[in-house]
Amino acid sequence: MTLKNISEKTFSLLVFGVTAAVLVVLSLLTDGNYGGTDNFNHYFIALSVWKQPHNFLDSWGRPLYTILSAPFALLGYEAVKLFNVALGLLTAWFAYLTVKRLGITRSWMVIIFVCFMPIYLVMLFTGLTEILFSFVVILSVYLFFREKYICSALVLSFLPFARTEGFVLLPFLGLALMLRRQWRAIPFIAFGFLFLSFIGSFYHKDFFWIITKFPYPVTHGHITYKVSGSLFHFLTSRDFIIGLPLEILFLYGSMLLVRDLFLKEKKVQTEALFIMVMVLAPFLTYLLMHSVLWWKALGGSIGLVRVMAAVTPLAAIVCLKGFSAIDKLFGNRWWLSALFAIGITYFVVRAAVTIHKIPLKPDQEETTIKKAAKWLRSSPYYGRPFFFTCLDFPFFYGVNANEPLVCKCAWFFYTRNLGPLPIGGILIWDAHFGPNENQVPLDSVLMNPTLKLLNVFRPDQEWTTYGGYNYEVYVVEKVPLGTPFSNGAILDSIATDEAAKCILTKRYVLDFEKNFPGVEPSKTSSEKSFSGTKSVKIDGDCEFSAGFFKKAAEITSESDGIQLWCSVKVYSDSAFTLNPATLVISVESKEGSYYYRSVPLESLTLAPGQWNTVKLTARISEIRSPNDQVKVYIWHRGKTTMYMDDLIVEVRKVR
Q: Could you give the CA distance from residue 389 to residue 36 in angstroms, rounded to a whole number?
């Protein structure tokens, strides 16, 4: 049997089987968790329902997802990921059955389009809810075109319990049923809402709990959700969502649907109308809704492009419309058709695996908090009650955060809760969720007289997390008030230990007593000094101070990165909060700065009227050219004179 003579059904099964095998292998090879800590929260909720059944009705967990994933959670987190892969494959299969029903040729290609849209592919290997949402949508669309109208309505009625924004798509099925004059089916669109609302009302004491227990603020009531962005954020992120090959096919397919609406052939016109109502319009509406939510900082939106995975299978159907129209141009020249299909498949799959670097590896945050969990498990503090700001920690620590009484752990929120922490309790603070969602600034932890620092964990390469913070994990112990300790001294000790792991290759001391490249004599002054007789004067008209300015080739031959350990003495007669300045380390090419590390002086505990020591460490992962400039200086934003002395720059590399 030649490839030409293989039946479409057989070939479709072959494509589905190969796709399934590839996705299972990729899932097992994927160590990273796209979407971060939300994966573990869904997993914890699903796992906890067997001991705490009320968690089936947890609004944040999305009840439909929790109900269906709970059996898989018993087998572990990897099983939950495979559950999502199975849902994605079923979504692709029902999309195939739908387009086959609609008579769109080369229907098997939609399996590839669904599974290898970039955002959909990376979301398959998670424990998140968007894939279930897409499955419910596509199953309902399939049942509608199979003329199983009541079944279609029943399936879609549960969509808000997969993701709350499912309410937005319900009216499109209602409109389609009205156009079909299927009046009896329309009331069933409310079945899922009424049924689970009734079940949940016994626990929540509120029939409308799915609305009143909405887990995110409708308006910006939390500092994290006050951030807004461009109305076109999701459009400008389209390469990460759909990918260029499918973008082109989607636009062409959309144009064809509009054209078909105006053709004289009634059957083609009607088919185009219902594809637009059931497929294209819901996709565009969902896109518009999330664009507006991010633009206006509503509904807890933080602009995550992953939400689009919930409807990209709808876009895949439109893409197939475009693909099929181009394919028909080849006529009976099956070999041209095969080459076209192979070419499109190559570019679609290539875009999907390269854009999100599949199989995904753990990012710097996940790797760092995993190190913290491993350390605590092997430390004398293992078994103590602990509190965490990031759900990654209990997962890697090996406990279910939704069983706090058993695991002696709790999710920690708000600075005001630092006081009631129990003596001996351990707090694990991270720079992503600590100052953002949990609203616990690092200073409030380190300056608390009852919280003793135990250890600090940082990424191997510097990582800027949400809110612009450099990612770090701090482990502290609650001790009785009056216990003698100094977190500043402990930090210095930890820094010394870190330095011992590195080789000092060069050391520069700028005491400003003699000429140094980058320091003009006119910038120095004898008015103040920490050592010797001179320092650098930074007056109110000086925005950028003199400092350390050298070509990368002068200080290192390491193209794969270096570490800079810098310290400087600073003096200001006025408070640093009134005379703001920032110690900066940057690496700049002709195109501009590509590495920037800084510490605002006003954020530190510095005393006016005396010399203070400021330290800053930079782990520069890449030196792009030996001609690039390495700079260490003070960016002065105040209007009052300040002074800088004894700038020390140490160049180190890891042993």
A: 13
CB 48 within 8 A of CB 102: no
Task: Say whether pLDDT at 19 is over 90.
Answer: yes
- In this structure, the answer to whether residues 493 and 576 fall within a common structural domain is no
What are the φ/ψ torsions at residue 626 (nearest 5 degrees)? -65, -15
The full DSSP string for 305-360 is: GGGGGGTHHHHHHHHHHHHHHHHHTTTT-HHHHHHHHHHHHHHHHHHHHHHTTSSP
Do the beta carbons of residue 585 and residue 598 sit within 8 Å? Answer: yes
Give the integer Cα–Cα distance in Å for 150 and 131: 23
CA dist., res. 130 & res. 251, Å (int):
23
Structural domain harbouring 76: 9-355
Place of tokens 């181009």: 326
Record the tokens describing residue 92, joined without a space. 């692709």
* Dist CA 433 CA 392 (whole Å): 11
Rounded to two decimals, the pTM is 0.87
Same domain for 157 and 58? yes
Burial class for 612, CB neighbours closer than 10 Å (0-12, 13-18, 19+): middle
Taking a C-beta distance cutoff of 8 angstroms, is the pair 567, 611 a contact?
no
Distances from the Cα of 346 to the Cα of 323, 342, 354, angstroms: 14, 6, 12
Q: CB-based contacts of 123: which residues, under 8 Å, 6+ apart?
A: 34, 35, 84, 130, 131, 306, 309
Lowest mean pLDDT among 204-213, 365-374, 391-400, 444-453: 204-213
- Which tokens belong to 289? 């809704």
State the maximum Cα–Cα separation within the chain, in Å, rounded to a whole number. 93
The CA–CA distances, whole Å, from 224 to 59, 467, 654 equal: 20, 9, 36
Closest CA to 309 of 16, 38, 63: 38
Give me the sheet containing 451-457, strands edge to edge.
409-411, 386-388, 426-430, 473-478, 451-457
Residue 603 and residue 468 share a domain: no
Q: Where are the alpha helices (DSSP H) in 30-62?
A: 37-48
Split into its structural domains, the chain has a count of: 3
Reference 542, options 639, 420, 423; nearest CA is 639
Alpha-carbon distances, residue 409 vs 34, 61, 480, 530 (angstroms):
25, 19, 20, 48
- Cα distance between residue 466 and residue 355, in whole Å: 21
CA distance 55 to 39: 16
> Would 2 be classed as within a structural domain?
no
Task: Decide the pairing of beta strands 629-636 and 535-538.
Answer: unpaired
Helices (H), 34-157: 37-48, 63-73, 77-102, 109-115, 118-124, 130-145, 149-156
Contact in structure between 412 and 388 (CB atoms under 8 Å): yes
Residues 14 and 153 in one domain: yes
The closest alpha carbon to 452, from 472, 469, 429, 477, belongs to: 477
Write b or e for each residue in 561-598: b if 16 or more Cβ atoms lie within 10 A of its Cβ, otherwise e: bbbbbbebbbbbeeebeebbbbbbbbbbeeeeeebebe
Please state, in angstroms and rounded to a whole number, the distance separating the CA atoms of residues 540 and 542.
6
Q: Which of 86-90, 586-590, 619-623 has the highest mean pLDDT?
A: 86-90
pLDDT at 496: 83
Residue 460 lies in a domain: yes
Q: Mind listing the pLDDT tens digit for each residue in 297-339?
A: 888 888 999 999 999 999 999 999 999 999 999 988 889 999 9
Q: How many CB atoms lie within 10 A of CB 507?
A: 11
Domain boundary among 307, 328, 355: 355
Considering the domain architecture, whether residues 482 and 507 belong to the same structural domain is answered as: no
User: Is 341 found in the same domain as 216?
Assistant: yes
